[in-house]
Design brief:
The structure is a single chain. Helices cover 31% and strands 27% of the residues. It contains eight helices and seven strands. Helix 7 (173-180) crosses helix 8 (186-199). The longest helix is centred in the last third of the chain and has 14 residues, at 186-199. The protein is globular, with a radius of gyration of 20 Å.
Length: 202
């Protein structure tokens, strides 16, 4: 087994990044980063605590992530399942990574920094959606920001209409939950999920 465990061995395997790759990393959100975030309806948040790492999706109307300056973002925490993994992680370890996506654009925006949880009404009220103010928000101090090339999106064909699967070829979440948890009725699980999507998004 050729397991590589030392950072220097990983670097030896791949070589050094180009000068351009190094220089494109900013310590702030320039006009292009801010424009991309305003267009983005979807971001993945990576966080971790002592037990391990976690990545969770966040999505809403384009521009749902508020830009409070070139080094400060505010991400509303919309109604969910109360696992609150990201918030619990940030409470223990503030280091986070963000991956912003814009449908139809192959490039993505990566933002790394530190987060803190706020329940300040003055910050939360402008983030209201469907008349509902989020319980909290994740305030992010930006340390790094850079655009990631579109190779992964091009290879995956993520935004291509003909790459979509026939939804009937993969089971519904209700069916999955019923299979994974003993005593769960499929029909009840399906009905509950349908109602949640219809009435409990915010």
């Amino acid at each position: 087994m050729n397991e590589i465990v030392k950072p220097e061995d990983v670097r030896t395997l791949y070589g050094e990044p180009s000068d351009l790759v190094r220089k494109k990393v900013l310590d702030r959100l320039d006009k292009h980063c801010q424009h991309f975030i305003r267009l983005s309806p979807f971001v993945v948040i990576a966080s971790c605590d002592d037990s391990g790492a976690d990545a969770t999706p966040r999505g809403d109307a384009p521009g749902f992530v508020a830009i409070l300056g070139d080094r400060r973002l505010l991400i509303p925490d919309r109604r969910g399942n109360n696992r609150i993994d990201t918030l619990l992680n940030v409470a223990r370890n503030p280091q986070i990574g963000l991956l912003f996506m814009v449908p139809g654009v192959n490039e993505t925006l990566r933002v790394n920094g530190t987060g803190r949880i706020t329940s300040d009404a003055a910050l939360l009220e402008p983030l209201a959606a469907q008349g509902k103010v989020p319980t909290s928000a994740l305030e992010v101090e930006v340390h790094e920001a850079f655009f990631h090339c579109g190779k992964a999106m091009i290879r995956s064909r993520l935004w291509e209409a003909d790459a979509k699967i026939d939804r009937k070829t993969f089971p519904s979440l209700g069916r999955i939950v019923a299979d994974q948890i003993a005593g769960i009725d499929v029909e009840a699980a399906e009905k509950n999920l349908e109602e949640a999507y219809r009435t409990r998004l915010y």
